[in-house]
């Protein structure tokens, strides 16, 4: 198994790193240092339609993430972009991903520049080795923006000398809403945009699944029983045999 070394995990919202790759992140043997960077931290969204103002919801969500980072020994970095709920935008885009980004070119420019600065700093000062990036499975508009902001750096060839591994992750719970063939199709489509090949890395989280689900509950304003079930279901169907649970990553070749 490869060692990810010092890793930057790009998370569109506070809960995405935990939901999507929480089982991998709690395996300390893979990492030297974990740095979780959340892009959209201003939010009005809760899973329970709690009627509070943006500042209070954003603070609650940030605190949930502080608790998660503390529990897994990660460093937290927060950018301060407003999420789709704060921008009053449609949350899911049902067009082709290339059309979805048209109204967001400026914000993608801005995030891309900030990501580059942070990656550059971490490569020079913290020996950054690996970056984890969402695939934007499910077409949540903020995940699409995060994905595009990052792949621009790869396309412009700005990262090749700075880091060793780029790893894409399947956005959960959204990935659980597709069958595995549908998911393969989306992943191929994303990699065609990037013009790169990927190989899958299956991470066995069988002995970590309970801990992962418990950590997900730290995101109290976000995690419903339905989300827990969806993530459990996806981890189970990726496994070869009964009683096993997996997370799947995509390593850019
Ligand atoms: Zn998200």
Overview in brief:
This protein is α/β, with parallel strands linked by helices and 253 residues long. It is built from nine helices and seven strands. The longest helix has 21 residues, at 105-125.
* Number of H/I helices: 9
The proportion of residues forming helix, as a percent range, comes to 40-55%
Q: List the domain count as a whole number.
A: 1
Strand order of the largest sheet: 3-2-1-4-5-7-6
- Poorly predicted ranges (pLDDT <50, ≥5 residues)? none
Distance between the termini: 16 Å
Number of strands: 7
Most strands sheet: 7 strands, mixed
In CATH's first tier, which class applies? Alpha Beta
Structural class: alpha/beta
- Assign the CATH superfamily: LmbE-like
Model description:
The chain is α/β, with parallel strands linked by helices and 253 residues long. The protein has a single domain, classed as LmbE-like (Rossmann fold, 3-Layer(aba) Sandwich). The chain contains 9 helices and 7 strands, in the order E-H-E-H-E-H-H-H-E-H-E-H-E-H-H-E. Strands 3-2-1-4-5-7-6 form a 7-stranded mixed β-sheet, with helices on both faces. Helix 5 packs across helix 6 (141-155). It is globular and about 45 Å long. The two termini are 16 Å apart. The mean pLDDT is 96. Residues 12-13, 16, 140, 143 line the site of zinc ion.
């Amino acid at each position: 198994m490869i060692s990810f070394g010092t890793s930057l995990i790009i998370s569109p919202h506070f809960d995405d790193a935990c939901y999507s790759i929480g089982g991998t992140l709690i395996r300390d043997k893979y990492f030297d240092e974990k740095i979780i960077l959340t892009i959209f931290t201003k939010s009005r969204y809760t899973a329970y339609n709690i009627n509070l103002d943006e500042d209070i919801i954003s603070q609650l969500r940030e605190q949930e993430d502080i608790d998660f980072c503390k529990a897994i020994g990660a460093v937290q970095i927060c950018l301060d972009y407003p999420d789709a709920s704060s921008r009053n935008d449609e949350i899911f885009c049902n067009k082709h991903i290339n059309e979805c980004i048209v109204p967001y070119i400026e914000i993608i420019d801005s995030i891309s520049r900030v990501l580059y600065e942070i990656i550059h700093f971490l490569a020079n000062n913290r020996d950054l080795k690996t970056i984890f990036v969402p695939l934007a499975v499910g077409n949540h508009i903020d995940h699409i923006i995060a994905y595009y902001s990052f792949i621009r750096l790869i396309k412009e060839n700005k990262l090749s000398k700075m880091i060793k591994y780029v790893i894409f992750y399947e956005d959960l719970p959204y990935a659980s809403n597709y069958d595995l063939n549908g998911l393969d199709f989306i992943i191929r489509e994303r990699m065609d945009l990037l013009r790169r090949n990927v190989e899958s890395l299956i991470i066995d989280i069988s002995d970590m699944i309970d801990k992962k689900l418990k950590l997900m509950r730290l995101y109290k304003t976000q995690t419903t029983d339905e989300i827990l079930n969806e993530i459990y279901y996806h981890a189970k169907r990726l496994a070869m045999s009964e009683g096993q649970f997996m997370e799947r990553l995509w390593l850019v070749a």
